[in-house]
Amino acid sequence: MSGGIPEAPPVRGGxxxxxxxxxxxxxxxxxxxxxxSERIFDDPVELWEWLLAHxxxxxxxxxxxxxxxxxxxxxRLVATPT
Amino acid sequence: MxxxxxxxxxxxxxxxxxxxxxxxxxxxxxxxxxFRRSEHGEVVAHSDxxxxxxxxxxxxxxxxxxGQVVCGYHGFTYGTDGRCVAVPGQTRVPRTARLTxxxxxxxxxxxxxxxxxxxxxxxxxxxxxPYLASPGYTTVRGMEPLAARFSLLVDNLLDLSHETYLHxxxxxxxxxxxxPITTEVDDEAGVVHVSRHMDDAECPPFYSRSTGLQGRIARxxxxxxxxxxxxxxxxRIAPVGSVPNPDGTxxxxxxxxxVYAITPETEHSTHDFWMVARDFALxxxxxxxxxxxxxxxxxxxxxxxxxxxxxxxxxxxxxxxxSRSTSTPVAWRRxxxxxxxxxxxxxxxxxxxxxxxxxDERWHPRSATGPRR
Lengths: 82, 373
Hints:
The complex is a heterodimer.
Chain A: E1 17-22, E2 29-32, E3 38-41, H1 44-52, E4 63-64
Parallel strand pairs in A: 3-4
Antiparallel strand pairs in A: 1-2, 2-3
Chain B: E1 9-15, E2 24-28, E3 31-37, E4 43-47, E5 63-65, E6 68-70, E7 77-78, E8 84-86, E9 104-107, E10 110-115, E11 138-146, H1 150-158, H2 163-166, H3 174-178, E12 182-186, E13 191-202, H4 205-211, E14 216-226, E15 230-239, E16 254-266, E17 269-278, H5 285-302, H6 305-309, H7 329-336, H8 359-363
């Protein structure tokens, strides 16, 4: 966790996963594209428009107004029965 | 404006236990469908309207006679395959006199029906919930009619921060609204995952009374929503500090699978199928009764007209912190409802042109999460 942003390890392991984190203690959302680009938004609609516009406006490694990307190891979903 | 329910999708039409050899009618996406079991025990589904004058075949005096459906209006008679086999007063039956058949699959105790082009019906796309029919679990279930469009129920269920308030005393505790959440949209798999892990939380009555755990608990919520119909909440309840073993076993925890099948009845009404499966106290009927009664109460609390009408109110556009990741319906609408989702390669590479959302389109996906202006 950095800068008040909750570090939420990913669960889904696919190649095209969009992630949205609630910025803890704030009224903002951090969108993380599968390409690695991420941004923080006030407006969830604008967040999704940006995510879905990939690759337009997305630069891998581009982190705007955001803290570090999700770097924690993948988490296993243990509650799913087999 | 409402988000239209997508066609070319599988929907839960009934519990398997509802369909017997008698006629059973249910409307899905505005289509009246007649269900019954064949003599071999298989569920069959056809249009619930006679081809002659559209009389409901599920409505008396329509009836079953020796396994055939006899229309109560003029006596047109249909076999198990939907073909008209007799027309009173004439010896020749038109070959085209046949009820529209619906692809139907009974799986995991649920009856799934395909709404759309039958040629596209692929049973392998039906999302699974095997615990609903597993001897290792005990399941309680019910179905409530909801006078609201199905997308509002999706919005409600993906946003569990409301539990603290709307369901206080049942499943809500302060931590639910105050714990970080992460939403993941897996475009290829066709899954929306919402994760909220509370490692030191108050134990709500729903779980304290059913598990016997007292005091603080670790409470994990992992929503796995497979649009458009199946919503699965994997709930893990354990003593504080308990984590699953590296091999995946989790002996100290109680697991509850809360499942909703969200099936549009019409554009403005929804079949709200709810199920609670647990891997503990399997034979304890008191626990079953408690969970059934409480979950039904929770469903009814969420079904109040005020709950869903608030999705359209001006006030709802005010942003709130903990509910904001429920903005996923935008992606769900874009991807999850397309005929090709999940798993179908895109016909055209991105980027795709995308028209700016109309004002009313911008309204709904933020029903409870809109920006603060």
